[in-house]
């Protein structure tokens, strides 16, 4: 925060110098132009600084809804709820995703937001990775992640993939008859271990894991992930903050400063 104030003061110095020059020479075309330009630069920098400070503090504490878009269809969702003493993540069930998909097709982002303060809809390709470590399993590869998000029965797919990774160290293959009971038991174990009440919640967990991998590459700052996705046109917001609206058109290091050097 102190560094930010120093920079703002530095931006104000040229304005002060121009005013002193105007006192000596009067309102000439040159001094007037310099004054206007100086005030504009300082004004924009000041607004971005203040807005960035408010955004960072508010974003961290406000309830958020993260959704994953796979070729125009919402396939996973996460609700993040935070209070002064608690932090909760809810993974959306399929019924909730179905309702959101209807609103999504209508372009009703404000209604989709519901009680959440922030709505973020990420394109799945933003999270394309060669592999991903989920819970304590062996890595899941891109083709498996794609299949899990596409399938109607992600728990069954995950259980079978996990079995083959553990026993055979290969990708899933068609079940033979004697393995069906083993597979069914694995499905129940997965539900119990991950506290799953709905298959879509597993997709939400995979989405959350992919999101956290991105956050870990951006100084553990979710806002920087949002900025990066905005610059790559891989995320949609119901309403862009001034910092993000301006920041997606500027070099990332410039806005990174305003988002990482604020007092929490």
Protein model, in words:
This protein is α+β, with helices and mostly antiparallel strands. It has a domain of 88 residues. It contains eleven helices and seven strands. The protein has a five-stranded mixed beta sheet with strand order 3-2-1-4-7, with helices on both faces. Helix 1 packs antiparallel against helix 2, helix 5 packs antiparallel against helix 6 and helix 6 packs across helix 7. The chain is elongated and about 85 Å long. The model has no long low-confidence stretch (mean pLDDT 78).
In a few lines, what is going on in this structure?
This protein has 264 residues and is an alpha+beta fold. 23% of the residues are buried.
Number of strands: 7
How much strand? 5-15%
Helix content: 55-70%
Overall pLDDT? 78
Topology:
Elements: H1 2-25, H2 29-61, E1 64-70, E2 73-82, E3 87-91, H3 94-106, H4 109-113, E4 118-123, E5 131-132, E6 140-141, H5 142-150, H6 154-167, H7 180-194, H8 199-216, H9 222-231, E7 235-237, H10 242-247, H11 252-260
Parallel strand pairs: 1-4
Antiparallel strand pairs: 1-2, 2-3, 4-7, 5-6
Helix pairs in contact: 1-2, 5-6, 6-7
